[in-house]
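Posting for a labmate who doesn't have an account.
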Amino acid sequence: MRILSRPITALIVIAVAAGAYGYQHLSRRHAPRSTGAPKAAMAPPEPPAPPPAIVAARTEAPPAERPARMTPAQEAGFDAWLVKTYLQCWKPARQPADSDVYVAQVRLAYNPDGSLMKPAKLVNPPSDPALKPEAKSVMAAVENCNPLPVPAQYRPFYAQWKTKTIHFDPQVAAR
């Protein structure tokens, strides 16, 4: 056992010496040599102060997170509220008895406050002149409801209701 312990001890001494040499070698290569100057002079210089605009940006609150999208149930609730609101403003014109039911489709673009961003556009104007009063009554309903009093729970989701196409079905209005 004594024979084995000497080589192991020698190996340990060699490893420690090599480690110490390697550490000293690395520290000499990367650390500045001492020139007798005080330690404060050897400290790394302070980084330059950032411009005021950058400082102000760091002190402001982080940008608000983008709101989540409406769930399908919330979207259905918003659409139901929207149709109900427009139906309350709409006084459908009498449709001729011999014509098909005309369901007007109106494309709308809203501002965040619920007002119309631009004039409403009738997507499917009637080809039958007898149905033109129906189309006119739909456009009047849109104007009468402007601006929409958007409920608070839907306001954060403006991106989803910014543009909508509403169907004005006289059979639904009659209910």
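Reply:
Got it, the structure tokens are right above this. Residues 13-18, 23-27 have pLDDT under 50 and may be disordered.
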